[in-house]
Amino acid sequence: MVRGELNRREWLRLAAGAGITLLVRPVHGEDQKSVLQRKIPSSGEQIPAVGLGTSQVFDIGGGSERDAAKEVLRLFVENGGKLVDSSPMYGAAETVVGDLAAELGVQRKLFIATKVWTRGRDEGIRQMEDSMRKLRTPRIDLMQVHNLLDLDTHLATLREWKKAGKIRYLGITHSRDSAHGELERIVNAGGIDFVQLNYSMTERGAEQRLLPAAAAKGTAVIVNRPFARANLFGRVRGKPLPDWAKEFDCASWAQFFLKYILAHPAVTVVIPATRDPKHLVDNMAAGRGRLPDEATRKRMVAHLESV
Length: 307
Description:
Blueprint: H1 8-18, E1 37-39, E2 46-48, E3 52-53, H2 63-78, E4 83-85, H3 93-104, E5 111-116, H4 121-135, E6 140-145, H5 151-164, E7 167-173, H6 180-189, E8 194-198, H7 210-217, E9 220-224, H8 231-236, H9 253-262, E10 269-270, H10 277-285, H11 294-306
C-alpha cells in the first residue's frame, strides 16, 4: 500500500461517516432522486456535494452570456445546489454572481465561497470587503486564501473575521499538484475548515497523501478542475459510455468523471464550472443515485486509460 493511501477497511469507515451511498447498497424510489449531501467536519453542517465553479465562465458582461449564466444559477438552485465558488482573480465573476443571485432572489439559498488574493493585511481586508459588496452579502460563508498567497497574514485576519462573524468558515486553495505538499502541511497543522485542491481521474495525486490527511484532520475538501480543464472530454470524444456505468446511475461522461470524485470519502464538494444550462443539469445529476465503490473506481480508471 502506498503511504497515505486508504485501505479498504478505512475507505468503508470514512465512506459511512460521510454518508456516501456506494454501489454495494442499491437505491430505490425517492432516495434515488435525493441530492447527495456531505457534512462539513468542523461544524456538522450538511451541504450538497455538487457545487458550481465560476472561473472564466462567469467573467462576462451582458447579453446572451449573462442570460445563460442567470439560467445556470437558477437551475443550480432548482436542482438543489448551494455552494458557489468565486474569487477576485476571476474578473467580473463575483459581481455577476451577486447581481444574478439578487435578480433571482436566491441569495439566502446559496453558500458563497470566495477568496483573498493579494499581499498585506490592509490590502487583504480591503479586497475582502470589496468582495462582500460585489457579492451583495454582509457575511461570506467561506473565505479562502487563494493559491496560498501571503498565507500567514491572511489566515490571521480570517481567524479574527470568523470570531467576529464576518465569515463562517476559512480555508486554503491551490490548483496544482506541486502545491499538495504545502497544503498537506497546513491541513496537518490544524485550524483549517476547508482545503480546495485539484483532483480528477487523470490528476489523482491528491489520493496519495492530501485527501487522507484532510480526512484524518476533519478538514472539508472542495475539488476544483474535476474535468482536468476539459481534457477528459477530449479523451473520450466519440467513445460510448460503458454499459456498466448504469450500475452506479451514471448516464454521461460528465457524471462518470464527477461520480469518481464524489465516491472518495474525503471529498465534500466538487465544483465544475459551466455557463451552459444543459451541462449544469448534467453535472448536478452526478449528485444523485448510487456512487461507485472502491473496486469500481479502479475499473473506471482502467477503462479511461484504455480508450
